[in-house]
Amino acid sequence: MRHYGASRIYAKKLAPNDNSKNQVYLGGDFSALNIIPHGEIRPDDAAVAGAVRDRAKAAVDFCWIDEAGRHLAPNTGLILYPRYPEVRMSGFLSGCKHAPSSIMRVRDEGRLLVLGITQQGGVLGYAANAADPITAELTAREWPTIGVFLELPLTLRQTTSPKQQLLDELRRIYRLQWIASQKLAPSGIKAPYAARNGGGYTLEAELGISPNGYAEPDFMGWEVKQYGVSDLLSYRPKSPVTLMTPEPTGGLYRTGGVASFLTRFGYPDQAGKPDRINFGGRYDCTRGAHALTGLRMTMTGFDATTGKITDFDGGFSLLDAADTVAASWSFRGMMAHWNRKHAQAAYVPSLFRTPPPEYCYGAHILLCEQTDFLLFLKAFATGTIWYDPAIKVEQASSAKPEIKRRSQFRVAHADLTRLYQRHEIVQL
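Predicted structure:
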């Protein structure tokens, strides 16, 4: 697994029904999507024309590995069943003549599936039967769990878990006290950073996190997020937590462009800045139309009572008084954004001072695990999560207006734990 680039390794003990005919069960929610990298979530082509989209698919860049090498399984994918809900993996034998068919076609007890996740978004697979020494080695030990998966170390010399290694690093950073604001370049070199949004960059630089092509979690499977506080005694957050910033995928915002959207729904800057049009405010499913923009937020395709998706073609929409769609986000697109980095998250408090710009990180760490997009939708339906845009155009009447986009979905820090199955507070 390491030889072919795995940076994280998981294993699943296979049940009799986990085979090529019945697919491999990956959990009774959508949390597996946070662990297994996948392509765009699309409607199932097999669905009857005109019917409600009751399931969706996502391709997986999957290869089987064995002593002979690596073998592409080009038809591997995830199938999402919102009715139950659950996720299954299918197509892993199709088109791959070196796939472990003798193990994955049967219903034998004691089989094992090992999955390696690469930083490029690939998935490596190894299947073992009950007699394989690897199976015996794995079942003889205790391993951390994430959903239906066991989390394995990259080497048996790795005696501490990824969670403990993260906490050890955060403890080291906490003891450094004030750290100069910085940002880690792709080359791995720390560079001074003067802008006021340097809290996250500085923490990432200390953790050795640099940008990469695939949106992997920051540190050994953990997303690390800092949040500004007024002091390191009460840890009272200065602002809500920004969960993600996806651009609208539909509505006039997409078809007419941002400038046209701002002209129609924006408003003059409330602080009196000349020739500037803003679009802001709080939008959620519990509120009426915003006084300045005339838009209200709606959600379709989700049953808040049962907590299930009823139509994968659903999503969120900003509507005007005539029900014109000003901007919209599809469930499939939002799910992809949410799944990228929220399987395991650590929230770290920070203080800022200047000059020079410096950050100090606290010892009160919130660890959250096992999220699911359905938890996101439940929170959005009740107004716990809201849309908080910061879109503007400056020099609006000029030949070259300057447009700045920022579509934020936010939550109060106190409500973060509602988005995860497990959480704990650790004092470093």
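Summary: The two ends are 33 Å apart (CA to CA).
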